[in-house]
Amino acid sequence: MLERRLPRYRPAAPAIPADQAAAERIGRLALRSLYREVALAPKPGLVTPASQGSHGDMDFTTFQRSLHSLRPYFPEITVCGLRGPDFATLQSLGIAAEAEMLAATGGINTHRGAIFNLGLLCAAAGWLIAAGETPEAARVCQVVADSWGDDIRAGLASVPATAPLSHGLAVARRYGSGGARAEAAAGFPAAREVGLPAYRAALAATGDEELAEVQALFALIAEVDDTNLLWRGGPAGLAHGRHAAAQFLAAGGVLSDDWRAHAAAIDRDFVARRLSPGGSADLLGVTLFLAGLGG
Ligand SMILES: CC(C)(COP(=O)(O)OP(=O)(O)OC[C@H]1O[C@@H](n2cnc3c(N)ncnc32)[C@H](O)[C@@H]1O)[C@@H](O)C(=O)NCCC(=O)NCCS
Ligand SMILES: Nc1ncnc2c1ncn2[C@@H]1O[C@H](COP(=O)(O)OP(=O)(O)OP(=O)(O)O)[C@@H](O)[C@H]1O
User: Which UniProt keywords apply (predicted)?
Assistant: First the structure.
């Protein structure tokens, strides 16, 4: 079991300087992955440097402000991971980062999913570093599932029927979709089994990181139970979004000569329907982080 492979929680132990430096590098990788996600274009219905996508209340500047506010968070939660923290400890860091983000954006949710997903992965990477293991992609995902999966799932089940619901919880209740929590608790299967292989195959075929990012994003949209698509468009909107992305891939994806025109048409269609695959965008950030870790 995991307890035997990883050290126990050490609340006050000072970090070894080399571990601290390695953890901070991983925190910077998480932030860089999110910059790459928002800088990417085209992305259907999502915010890019040139477009607000399907969003009236945020643009590229909002995302830049949000990312600036998160600069200390990712190194901090990775360093916290060195001590083998419990879920409640991580949750308090995540909630504080959410508050910083909302203060920086004037109350707009730009990175709630990313704070959660990448925060957990960073903490897992820290834990592995302290155990003397290389924080490879598959291992960090496994540590998230094994160490905190039960607590993450318990959080979804324990919300009182009368509690005010976030959009994610509202669609979880209405449609039984687990969203960001289910994905994290299971060790990020969509990022590992869909995003990462699509990214690596397209990178090998084209040698172009941006093309590989576009391909990974469409692969994720085609497969993920994206609670942002569900919230905006209901089950029909989610099915429509997934089908459009699957058609893009079936036509050859970024290897097709006219992929840009095809992606632009899907973007126009998503914007006309107010659809935004924000969960898939967050999982593209996770995919780029895992690709950066390697393994
Ligand atoms: C768990 C969180 C993200 C819950 O989100 P919630 O269900 O309330 O939904 P909400 O609509 O507010 O946000 C969901 C976020 O997940 C992303 N998302 C949507 N679908 C998916 C999916 N299938 N997979 C991954 N991410 C997704 C969205 O882009 C969005 O940003 C969060 O609000 C929370 O509990 N924050 C506290 C911080 C915390 O627990 N941190 C733990 C350690 S870092
Ligand atoms: N590049 C991006 N563009 C837009 N959304 C993104 C992008 N990257 C990630 N997201 C995610 O999408 C979510 C925003 O979607 P949305 O605006 O639908 O959420 P909401 O605020 O819950 O709902 P609504 O705006 O419909 O009231 C953010 O939580 C963010 O994590």
Answer: ATP-binding, Glycosyltransferase, Nucleotide-binding, Transferase
| pTM assigned to the model | 0.94
Q: Are 27 and 75 in contact (CB under 8 A)?
A: yes
How many domains does one find in the chain? 1
Asked whether residue 8 is domain-assigned, the answer is no
Cβ density class 105-120: b for 16+ within 10 Å, e for less? beebbbbbbbbbbbbb
For residue 187, being part of any structural domain is answered with yes
Distance 139 CA to ligand 1 centre (A): 22
Assess whether the C-beta atom of 53 lies below 6 angstroms from ligand 2: yes
Q: Which residues are CB-contacts of 77 (< 8 A; sequence separation ≥ 6)?
A: 27, 90, 93, 94, 97, 119, 122, 123, 126
Question: For residue 13, is it within any domain?
Answer: no
pLDDT of residue 149 exceeding 60, the answer is yes
2 located within any domain: no
The pLDDT tens digits of the residues spanning 111-145 come to 999 999 999 999 999 999 999 999 999 999 999 99
Q: For residue 165, give its domain range.
A: 18-293
Q: Three-class SS of residue 117?
A: helix
Nearest CA to 292 out of 226, 222, 209 is that of 209
pLDDT band at 10 (very low <50, low <70, confident <90, very high): low
Pocket test for ligand 2, best of 111, 116, 276 (most atoms within 8 A of CB): 276
Residue pair 179/229 in contact by the 8 Å Cβ criterion: no
Distance CA 4, CA 220 (A): 34
Asked if 144 contacts 124 with a C-beta cutoff of 8 angstroms, the reply is yes
Please state the φ and ψ torsions of residue 272, each to the nearest 5 degrees.
Answer: -60, -35
- 136: DSSP letter: -
> Which residue's C-alpha comes closest to atom 33 of ligand 1?
112
Q: Residue written as tokens 């909630």? A: 95
Cβ contact 192:285 at 8 Å: no
In the reported structure, the alpha carbon of residue 22 is separated from the centroid of ligand 2 by a whole-number distance in angstroms of: 31
